[in-house]
Amino acid sequence: MRALSIASTGMLAQQMNVEVISNNIANMNTTGFKRNRAEFQDLLYQNVRRVGAQTSEADTRVATGVQIGLGVRAAGVYRIAEQGNLTLTSNTYDLAIDGRGYFRVELPTGEEAYTRAGSFQLSDQGELVTADGYRVLPGIIVPPDAVDVTISDDGTVQVKQAGQVEYQTVGQIDLAMFPNEAGLESIGDNFLKETASSGVPTIGIPTQEGFGKLRQGMLETSNVNPVSEITSLITAQRAYEMNSKVIQTVDEMMNATNQIR
């Protein structure tokens, strides 16, 4: 019976759905994490009686036909770029993006990656880096004798050095924005990479039209809603159970057929 294979595709789809939901829940406290949503498509259909087929010489035609679906498959896992909440940390080098945009980071390979996680630090050379020591582009160096560092909403980095009254500008943090943020490739460590689907990034200054603003001493939390995820988990579990019930029912029907004498 086709129902066995159809129900099995449903179980596999819901298994993947649960895996996506579990990843969301696991990253509830990951800075800048964006939740994902699994999307599905129905498979091919077998035409037992084709729609619109001619049924007589009077040009009468089949009104609805008979099509039997062959199940479901995963179409994609969509990243939802909804803004997360901003939480106060009071750490000088913690930065949150309020609005659209991504920080640019240089990987050890020389490639450019993008992130919403702004928990930055200083390297031994005084350069602004990520927790793993990767350089934050375009490259900001804070003098070793700086007694105060301020980062404005537009990304301007100013420092006050020992013995001086005036602040000096030492750099400008910019942001990257993509036509299709959902097309970015997740590579782990809170990093995303450009793909053909994401489009070419547009580099701009925070607070410019379309770009978000920076918030010093704050971090963006994940946009995972625990209540919504648990609800989705229950729904996926019930769908999995119903598909397994179909397999059980088909097995009983086949068993009944085998007992016919």
Entry keywords:
261 residues; alpha+beta; 3-stranded antiparallel sheet; 22% helix; 31% strand
Blueprint of the fold:
Elements: H1 2-26, E1 36-42, E2 45-49, E3 66-69, E4 72-79, E5 86-88, E6 95-98, E7 103-106, E8 112-115, E9 121-122, E10 128-129, E11 135-136, E12 146-151, E13 156-161, E14 168-172, E15 175-177, E16 185-188, E17 191-193, E18 202-204, E19 213-216, E20 218-220, H2 226-258
Antiparallel strand pairs: 1-4, 2-3, 5-20, 6-19, 7-8, 7-11, 9-10, 12-13, 13-14, 15-18, 16-17
Helix pairs in contact: 1-2
Q: What's the short version?
A:
With 261 residues, this protein is α+β, with helices and mostly antiparallel strands. It is built from two helices and 20 strands.
Strand residue percentage: 25-35%
Helix content: 10-25%
By secondary-structure content and strand pairing, the structural class works out as alpha+beta
Largest sheet: 3 strands, antiparallel
Mind telling me the C-alpha Rg? 27 Å
* Average residue-wise pLDDT: 91
Low-confidence stretches: none
Task: Record the strand order, biggest sheet.
Answer: 8-7-11
Order of helices and strands: HEEEEEEEEEEEEEEEEEEEEH
Shape: elongated
Count every beta strand, where a strand is a DSSP E run of 2 or more residues.
Answer: 20
The first-to-last residue Cα distance is 20 Å
Count of separate DSSP helical elements: 2
